[in-house]
Amino acid sequence: MAANRPDRQTRRRIAQMEARRALRNDQARRRRRDNVVAGIALAAAVTAGLVLQLAVFGSNPAEQFRTLEEGLQVPETGTSATPQASAGNTASAANIPSADLARGKTFTGTLATNQGEIQVRLDGSKAPQAVSVFTTLAGEGFFAGKTCHRLTTAESMGVLQCGSVDGAGAGDPAYQWGPVENSPADGSYPAGTIAVARGQSTSSNGTQFFITWKDSTIAQDTGGYTVMGRVTGGMDVLRKIAKGGVKEPGSRDGAPKIPVSIKSFTLKESPN
C-alpha cells in the first residue's frame, strides 16, 4: 500500500490542477451570469427606446406636442430676458400698433410665395391685436423676402411656420406683444388655421405665424396660440410643401426640404 501512495511532488501537481479546474469553472459561471445580466439590460434599453418613440410620435397629441412645441415657441434674442405684454413693455409698446386698427374688421389678401399663392382671411373681431399687427407689418412690406423656416409633419400636428427676422427662427425682442387671443380651448387647429407663434410667455407674440396644412391638435397647457384667421385658397400649395418633407433625413420637424420664401403679403379691409 505504501508503494502505491503518490509522492509529495505528485500530490502538489494534482492540487494545482484541481485549483486551475476550479478557477475555470468559476470563470465560466461568471461569464454565464454576465451574459444573463447583459441580456436583461439590452431588453430594458430596447423597451425604453420603444416607450420613448411612442411618447414622441404616438397617438397622444399632448405628449407629442411637448416635444415639438419648442419650434413654435420663438427663441428670445438680444438682452430682453423676460418677454412682456406690449402694455407693460415701454420698449416694445412704441412698435406695436393699436388693436383698434383692426377691431371688428375683416381683412383678405394673398400670401405669395415662391411655391405658389395662398389666399387668406384675417378676423379682427376675434383677434384684434394680432390682426392689427399683421396687417400693419404686411402693409409695411415686412414679410417680403422672409422665409418659412419650419415644417412639422407629425401624426397629429402639421404646421408651416414663417416670418422669422433672420430666417432661422429667431424673434425680435423689441417687437413683442400679448396676451394670447382667440385660442381654442380644446387645442384643435383645423387645416388652414393661421395662428401667431410666440416665445414661452403668452405675452411674447412677435412677427412669426404658422399655418396648419392639416387638422392639428396642439396642447393648450402652456397658454395656447392666437388664431387670427384662415386660408381660403391655396391649400394645395401647403400640401405640396408638406409632401416634400423635412430637410433633415428621418426628421418630422425642421427646415422644409422644399425651400419656401415669401414674395409678398398683401391684405386689405373687406366687408364682413
Description:
It is a single chain. The protein has 272 residues and is of the alpha+beta class. 32% of the residues lie in helices and 22% in strands. The protein has five helices and eleven strands; from the N terminus they run αααββαβββββββαββ. The chain has helices spanning 8-57, 61-72, 90-93, 128-139, 235-244, and strands at 106-113, 116-123, 150-153, 158-162, 188-189, 193-198, 205-212, 216-217, 227-233, 253-254, 262-270. Strand 6 and strand 7 (205-212) form a beta hairpin.
Features:
272 residues, alpha+beta, 9-stranded antiparallel β-sheet, 5 helices, 32% helix, elongated
Strand count, sense and closure of the main sheet? Answer: 9 strands, antiparallel
The strand line-up of the biggest sheet is 10-3-4-7-6-9-2-1-11
Structural class: alpha+beta
Topology order in helix (H) and strand (E) letters: HHHEEHEEEEEEEHEE
* Beta-strand residue fraction: 15-25%
- Tell me, briefly, the overall form: elongated
End-to-end separation in angstroms reads: 122 Å
Total of DSSP H or I helical runs spanning 4+ residues: 5
Mean pLDDT reading: 79
**Helix proportion:** 25-40%
C-alpha-based Rg, rounded: 31 Å
Number of strands: 11
Uncertain spans, ≥5 residues at pLDDT below 50?
42-65, 76-91
